[in-house]
Structure formats: C-alpha cells, structure tokens
C-alpha cells in the first residue's frame, strides 16, 4: 500500500492535537510507530532497512521498517519585550471633574516617545500648551502625532507605552489652566 506523504503529515498533526502518546500502524509492507513526549530518539536498529523512497508525486513507497518518529516540538512560551520607556503610574483614585481627557482619535498603538531611544513627549506633572505633541498613535504603519487641545498640567497618563488603544479611549488627563 503506497503511503502519501501529505496524509502522513496530516496524521502526525492530528495526533499532536490529542492526548495519544503512542500509535503503531502495521501492514504487510511496513510498520510505523509514533511516540509523543520523548526528548530524544532511541537508537534505530541497523538491521532495519530505510523507511522508503519518495517519488516526485510525494508518495512514499514503504520498505519493511520499524520507524520511530519524534514528537513535534513543544511550543516555546511567548516572550514579551520589556517596555523601553518607563510605564505610566497607576491612575489616582480620585479624578477631578474639571480635568480634560486627551482621547485617541483612532485605533492603533500608543507610544509616549518619537523613538524607543528618545525621551517621552510628556510626563506626569509636565505643563503643556495647545498644539503640543503629547504622544503618537501608530495605525497601519503610519505614525500619527496627537496634539493637546487644551493647555495645562499632565495629571495622569492612562496607557502604557506600546499598548493598543481604541477610538475614543482616554490616553491622559490634563488639569487645564
């Protein structure tokens, strides 16, 4: 019975999605054993022939073999890069009703500085004026400078550097004056 390479690959992918730890397939032409959870391959008996030859059509013609295939590698944990700019302090428990919010005019990614190695546009406590750039929102690979619409003092920065933001989401609070 010819064994299609794509079918074998699909079988291995399906096994990887289950709790099955070992599977053996035997026929008159070949023998295939798959074991999951092994960290290294056991030595293969030198008296056993090669698995088979692959034709140009991707069909494996099996030879009499006892093959052990390693389990697929376990996925690595996701690595989250450190924030190069210090994150904003936690918002204060009381919000003065006269404070104005700088809101995101679009969906994108919030950045406090023009480049990773440059200082932030504003920090908590800074005085700002109308038209001053206070942050950047990256949307579709375009860097959009966000300007203050009110003069005053930056009281809170509500979003961390590199964090995704939604349309209308408050980015910072300004005490006008």
What does the model show?
By secondary structure, the protein is mostly beta strands. It contains 1 helix and 14 strands, in the order βαβββββββββββββ. The chain has one helix spanning 5-16; strands at 3-4, 22-26, 31-35, 52-54, 59-62, 66-69, 100-103, 108-111, 127-128, 133-139, 142-147, 152-157, 164-165, 170-176. The protein has a 4-stranded antiparallel sheet with strand order 7-14-12-9, with no helix packed on it. The longest helix is centred in the N-terminal third of the chain and has 12 residues, at 5-16. The protein is rod-shaped, with a radius of gyration of 30 Å. Mean pLDDT is 77; it is low at 46-50.
Summary?
The protein is mainly β. It has one helix and 14 strands.
What CATH architecture of the largest domain would you give?
Answer: Beta Barrel
Shape: rod-shaped
Largest sheet: 4 strands, antiparallel
Count the strands? 14
Q: In total, how many domains does the architecture comprise? A: 2
CATH superfamily of the largest domain: RNA polymerase II/Efflux pump adaptor protein, barrel-sandwich hybrid domain
Count of DSSP helices?
Answer: 1
Point out poorly predicted stretches: 46-50
Level-1 CATH class name of the largest domain: Mainly Beta
What is the helix content?
Answer: under 10%
Rg is 30 Å
Major β-sheet strand ordering: 7-14-12-9
Structural class: mainly beta
Assembly state of the chains shown:
single chain
- Strand and helix order: EHEEEEEEEEEEEEE
């Amino acid at each position: 019975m010819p064994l299609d390479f794509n079918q074998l690959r699909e079988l291995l992918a399906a096994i990887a999605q289950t709790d099955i730890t070992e599977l053996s397939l035997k026929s008159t032409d070949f023998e295939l054993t798959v074991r999951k959870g092994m960290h290294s391959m056991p030595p293969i008996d030198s008296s056993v022939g090669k698995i088979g030859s692959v034709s140009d059509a991707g069909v494996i013609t099996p030879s009499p073999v006892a093959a052990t295939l390693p389990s697929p590698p376990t996925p690595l944990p996701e690595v989250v890069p450190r924030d190069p700019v210090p994150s904003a302090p936690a918002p204060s428990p009381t919000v003065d009703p006269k404070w104005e919010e700088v809101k995101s005019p679009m969906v994108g990614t919030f950045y406090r500085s023009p480049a990773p190695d440059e200082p932030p546009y504003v920090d908590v406590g800074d005085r700002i004026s109308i038209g001053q750039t206070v942050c950047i929102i990256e949307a579709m690979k375009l860097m959009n400078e966000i300007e203050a619409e009110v003069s005053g003092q930056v009281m809170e920065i509500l979003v961390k550097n590199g964090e995704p933001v939604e349309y209308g989401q408050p980015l910072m609070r300004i005490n006008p004056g």
